[in-house]
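Hello everyone,

My group is preparing for a crystallization screen and wants a predicted model to guide construct design. The compound we'll soak is nicotinamide-adenine-dinucleotide. Before spending weeks at the bench, it would help to have a computed complex in hand. I've included the protein sequence and the ligand's SMILES below. Output in structure-token form would be ideal because that's what our pipeline reads.
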Amino acid sequence: MVFLFIAFAACEQKKGEAVQPIVVETPVRPAGQKDVIRLTAPKIDTVRVGFIGLGMRGPGAVARFTHIPGTQIKALCDIRQDCVENAQNILREAGLPEATAYYGDENSWKQLCDRDDIDLVYVATDWRHHAEMGIYAMEHGKHVAIEVPAAMTLEEIWALINTSEKTRKHCMQLENCVYDFFELTTLNMAQRGVFGEILHVEGAYIHNLEDYWSSYWNNWRMDYNRNNRGDVYATHGIGPACQLLDIHRGDRMKTLVSMDTKAVNGPAYIRKTTGEEVKDFQNGDQTTTVIRTENGKTMLIQHNVMTPRPYSRMYQLVGTDGYASKYPVEEYCLRPEQVDTNMVLNHENLNAHGAMPEEAKVAMMNAYKHPIHQELEETAKKVGGHGGMDYIMDYRLVYCLRNGLPLDMDVYDLAEWCCMAELTRLSIENNSAPVAVPDFTRGGWNKVSKYQHAFVK
Ligand SMILES: NC(=O)c1ccc[n+]([C@@H]2O[C@H](COP(=O)([O-])OP(=O)(O)OC[C@H]3O[C@@H](n4cnc5c(N)ncnc54)[C@H](O)[C@@H]3O)[C@@H](O)[C@H]2O)c1
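Reply:
Good plan to model first. Here are the tokens for the complex, ready for your pipeline.
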């Protein structure tokens, strides 16, 4: 199946004519299928979970689940037996029964999905296995949670959407950064109008992976970068940005344009570590993408895993009445009249040359602490996982499943955040031509008017 149908007028463009974006085909929704916007499923009293992929990331998830009430870890799977053993030890140390182990074969994971005593399959393998495992799990009656990026191509994305719509099973991407403390606090402020109308947001994955490349199973991550151009790891940056803009809850990403630098440090790393001269390394050291939304907002998304730079997910927002930025220091800037006067504030400092003073910032962040953090911050900081956000993500997933609520992130979020890989490549390979972002909801992007987390009333 190929979805690339291009309406491409750029090369024939005449002076004064607008450049038409490249359009990829949106497959017709199969007959009898409905969207899964605000999908609910029957409540599950005890969420029985099976984990696939127990390399660097997976065991942390197993450990976190030992702290989440209302869960049972039923099965553990990895190709490598020692990885499964290591995860069994986590259960032993927590005083929990051993889980059924699956290992040794590329397809052992299917036996885990075939069981009838599992509600949720949790996937933390390399990127190439994600979509296949998610689809199979849903086809076999399970909800599925998949590590980032949950899908690498449009074909995989549409297959996940169609399977979730057909089976009415949840398909959530495990994007943890939307639960980090600054992000969720700032989202709460944004939703309460603190920044006025939000016009522009930024997000990124800037993380020098030099010290990690050799640790990935079978070198999968460097290989992926070697063979694929574009922003292949956009979700940590774009996820929180999309939530700020209510994407497919009243707005939608419409057009993107992307550019990359040449690839220097990727091939240099391979030369240094193996002696191989790679002439056609695909992924640029830095990839930069700009997106415009239906409602006239813009987004700036960056990807750089190659050069020595301080870690950053950018996380910036520009509103008509204020500004927030997470890196390198967390800061806010507001109009004085926007600020709640009960908070200690030095209005003199709220000008074009400085952000809000530290004391006022802390007071405001406390005042706008998100209800999820009010409930979970203390435990999350104890259990950990990137400072606690991973625990909050897992807890929320289980909470929503146990209470029959729509999940915080649906399959369309997954689609919108993952489509960057293929669409940015398309733009870059066509001289940075504009590319239309498909409406993955197939007409439902405006059905809900605001992004919101579901709670038991
Ligand atoms: N959200 C985050 O903050 C975060 C952080 C790190 C990694 N990740 C994501 O987690 C995923 C895993 O990354 P990692 O760093 O653990 O990589 P890794 O290479 O350490 O682990 C991948 C594991 O998958 C196993 N595997 C591969 N094919 C399999 C199969 N057919 N059946 C069973 N097991 C199989 C491998 O044996 C390996 O143990 C990736 O998608 C990555 O992007 C997310």
